[in-house]
Amino acid sequence: MLLYRATELIGYPAVRAYFRPEVTGLEHVLRTGAAIIAGNHLSAADEVFTPVSARRQVVYLAKAEYFAQPGLRGRFVARLFREFGHVPVDRADPHAAASTIQIGVELLAAGKALGIYPEGTRSPDGRLHRFRTGVARLALRSGAPVVPVGLVGTDQVLIAGDRRWHRRPVAVHFGPALDFSGRAEAGPPRDHRSSARSSPATVWTGLRGPLRGLGKGGRISKARACSSASRA
Q1: Is 85:112 a contact under the CB 8 Å cutoff?
Q2: Partner of 148 for a Cys bridge, out of 53, 103, 158, 211, CB 3.0 to 4.6 A?
Q3: pLDDT tens profile 137-179
Q4: Domain holding 143: CATH number?
């Protein structure tokens, strides 16, 4: 964990100082204990700006091929992912889905913050698309609170097909934690103190609205956008 600790102490503050992401709702991020951090997915940079803004370690279930690339660079990437707590999953295996959920449940049981993208892949146009079942199954099986996060502008920092990182305005908006562990109420939960019937549809309904609102319309303050444009 030495590499992660060095990144946390030096790398993340450098990212915050250079990109100056606009962060709102940080008070909704649990400082310790299990949490599912569910965000929209615009860019590979999301997995940097989410923990940088949350100010706690967020682990991800990553493609197994990231851990098996050849050469020195491949070994470095594999070590980097392991140091950051990411776990390899074989998405090509049709039987891997159940074990992937179990891995996620075990990480949450250990008190980790687990990052997940409900859509399962990057959005091609910045809009929120159909959710896959993973986030619902994790929430219902683990009982962990789900913290929605809307990311804005990360697709302009790391553009698809371009390895260079660009200094562009970024916003990270966290919403109140949602609790799907109970069965008392019929409607979607309003916040971490409320509960809902345990069904995947309940999770999708309860999460989609807040997530769409947090990432809606490129919510970056005009002052931040102008400031970033002047520095670019």
Answers
A1: yes
A2: 211
A3: 899 999 999 999 999 999 999 988 888 999 999 999 999 999 8
A4: 3.40.1130
Taking residue 48's Cβ as centre, other Cβ atoms within 10 Å add up to 21
**Cα 140 from Cα 134, distance rounded (Å):** 10
Q: How far is CA 38 from the centre of its chain?
A: 5
Which residues are 60's β-sheet partners? 115
Q: Report d(CA 172, CA 159) in Å as an integer.
A: 17
Strands (E), 9-118: 22-24, 35-39, 58-63, 87-89, 113-116
pTM to 2 decimal places: 0.81
- Per-residue CA distances from 139 to 94, 131, 142, 162, 224 (Å): 22, 14, 5, 34, 34
Number of domains in the chain: 1
Domain with 191, as residue range(s), is 2-231
Predicted local confidence at residue 23, as pLDDT:
95
Q: pLDDT tens-digit profile of 93-133? A: 666 667 888 889 999 999 999 999 998 888 888 888 888 88
